[in-house]
Prior knowledge:
Pfam family, one: HEAT_5MP1_2
Keywords: Activator, Transcription, Transcription regulation, Translation regulation
Region (Disordered): 1-28
InterPro entries: ARM-type_fold (IPR016024), eIF5-mimic_regulator (IPR051245), HEAT_5MP1_2 (IPR057397), W2_5MP1/2 (IPR043510), W2_domain (IPR003307)
Organism: Seriola lalandi dorsalis
Distance between the termini: 156 Å
Amino acid sequence: xxxxxxxxxxxxxxxxxxxxxxxxxxxxxxxxxxxxxxxxxxxxxxxxxxxxxxxxxxxxxxxxxxxxxxxxxxxxxxxxxxxxxxxxxxxxxxxxxxxxxxxxxxxxxxxxxxxxxxxxxxxxxxxxxxxxxxxxxxxxxxxxxxxxxxxxxxxxxxxxxxxxxxxxxxxxxxxxxxxxxxxxxxxxxxxxxxxxxxxxxxxxxxxxxxxxxxxxxxxxxxxxxxxxxxxxxxxxxxxxxxxxxxxxxxxxxxxxxxxxxxxxxxxxxxxxxxxxxxxxxxxxxxxxxxxxxxxxxxxxxxxxxxxxxxxxxxxxxxxxxxxxxxxxxxxxxxxxxxxxxxxxxxxxxxxxxxxxxxxxxxxxxxxxxxxxxxxxxxxxxxxxxxxxxxxxxxxxx
Length: 397
């Protein structure tokens, strides 16, 4: 008799070795949360340290796969359960939007941190951009959060420009370009839109084509106009410095013509810049009786510069309007208008045709009655001189 016990059958079956290509990584948001929360709790509250941790973790953890979980953690501190509540049985982090200080500076920092992450898919980024555009249009958030789009890595990879297209389309659709312009000016970003592109593509031409092709011609025109304004301010500053140094007017004229060409400025735009530069290059006397004498002396000195940029009738008219505006805005110059115009007429900067056109139809409403009254006798003299000249020509014929 065989004393050995008979082995009972088992239900385990034969175990086969799984080939690596047949393995499929299990979707485990809980484990992902534990890894992220543990890391965040170790970094403390320093935003720079948090950003470094998240950036480094992106190489090991699949942000794209767990984008929703990551968003929950950074906003609410942990994964949200059905109904929008935080799961009680999960480890949480105090480093999240909902536990942050309630001030604009902190919110801006969180916005930069969230947009710095490249873990979201293109579709997810588009949705976030569209939502951000709507929130901006309705004043729910400040446009200062857009500073995060100028992150070097986002710009280099083209994420910033693509995000901006969706955002601005949504914003303009909700409001209009004027809303965008006002908000950007308020936070000092109206001149920074070119920075959405890498340095080698940072030009008006590239910006204009990119956003026009994307259906945002209004934004393209706004950016081009802002670039022009920026160039004008820089040119005005340089002209004032040249005048303050006492540079020869021939050099100033040559420099100005070159800069005018570079910036594609019209002569009308240029004469306005020159007038402002000339009038800003001196400290005016506070006494009204002395300021006129000082202005005449100063403008006589710079009449060759003004003459070099009034070769067209429209330029002369632009200059007259700038003079009128300046004299109206600066109370000490209210009585100096007529003397300034006569001086520039004698210096061949202004023609009688331009002065008469300004007097009869092209003047501004600012100080209209005062300045027209000042110019009345001189205009009558111009008209009489013109009539005498016509009579002489007829007699000669």
